[in-house]
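Researcher: Before we compare anything, I want clean individual predictions. No alignment, no superposition, just each chain on its own. First chain goes here; please echo the sequence and then give the structure tokens.
Model: Echoing the first chain and its structure:
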Amino acid sequence: MRVAILDDEPAELRRVEQTLRQIPGPADQPWSLHFFERGEDLLRQLRRETFDLLIVDWHLPDTTGPEVVRWVRQNVAARVPILFVTHRQEERDIVEGLGSGADDF
């Protein structure tokens, strides 16, 4: 399973990686984790290859998580699941995150 993780904090990238590594992947599809610290880097990669899951942070140095999610929903044909992992937790943030096209928050 190919997973793209977008977060500008290296400690958060490691935390997500450690969490995913604790979950056994399907025997025929081991975890293949790809890390991105800038939204544009992920979007550039999405123009060339596909992922089975996107894990996206809200705060990024060059864009926002909702902007990345909207771009994915408008430009990527396959309906890839998108999960927000962020410290934001206000109701309006959840509404905006899901409204941008994320599958879970």
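Researcher: Okay. Second chain, same rules.
Model: Second chain and its structure:
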Amino acid sequence: MYRPIRALLFAGLASLAAAGSTQGGIHAAAQRENAQSIPADGRLSVMTYNVKGLPWPVTMGREEALDAIANRLAMLRKTGRQPHVILLQEAFTPEAMRIAARAGYVHVAQGPDAIQLSRAAGNQADRSYIAQGRWDRGEGIGKQLGSGLQILSDYPIARVDRMAFPDFACAGFDCLANKGVLIAHLQVPGFDLPVSIVNTHLNARTAAGVSVERTYRAFSRQVDLMTQFVASHVPATQPMILGGDMNIGKDARRADAFFARFARAGMPFITPNLGSARRALAQSACADPAMRHDLAYSSGRAKDWMFARDARQQPLQVVAARVPFGTEPTGAPLSDHFGYVIDYAPPSRTHLAQRTEAGETL
């Protein structure tokens, strides 16, 4: 009964991959008419958003919602309220991949495409894990899609680093996409050093279609590889913002694995309480009541996270937050995730605020 449906699913993914998986590293389109000057407000605003740009037959009728996302971002740009940097997940379809151009983002970094291979070497346990894979759940049949990761930026991208997760670090239907890690190193006004933006989308839990135990193992291996990759490509003395769809949720084992591994990797700013959405709520940095409700909902789901540090390993100061893609006044939300924005103060302002709070005379 289910094999014809799975065959249709795989065929649809393969056809989309053939049509739309060609991805470059960085492209700059300064000729775009809707690209405007960047407001000099002394802040760095960053949004993370899983746009649900999944192909048919996984989802249907997403074109209108994806167009609405692009149009809203373009409207925000016209009034100077666009996020300076956007981390997109599940930008698989042509409509999702056109969001950047339609919203006026001049600099775009793409995550691993469908053909990028992982260089990670597995151990005996990893090989045993692969041998137990289920082809009828998308395991072991090859990548049909790229990672779905993009970083959109108003600021120049100096360098891009990307890593694809190996077959021993994926589970179930997630294996059809070449999930991994994308890092864009940006030249940002107000920051003396490049700011490294890290975007990722980790393995789903029950939606992957295999056992929770199998998805947990894939998730934990992904976190292992991601922490190693980030530590080797982002100097400890460089500002960094990590965000994306972490798929931690209410699973205590996933939370323990995620935060313990980053702590061991020397990144202590990545803790639950230092998540930027939680910090914004604690500081009442989201003024609009409806947006504050949406931010609390997104934070409570514990899937979409952002963490930020300065060059001294101290958390960047959160000065404001908003949710441009949350509950809609009419109709359903534009995705099954909310897209929220955090405004960070540059390090000089962060240090000034810290000294003032400590009671120092300036």
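Researcher: What stands out in the second chain?
Model: The longest strand covers residues 44-53. Additionally, Residues 1-8, 14-37, 349-362 have pLDDT under 50 and may be disordered.
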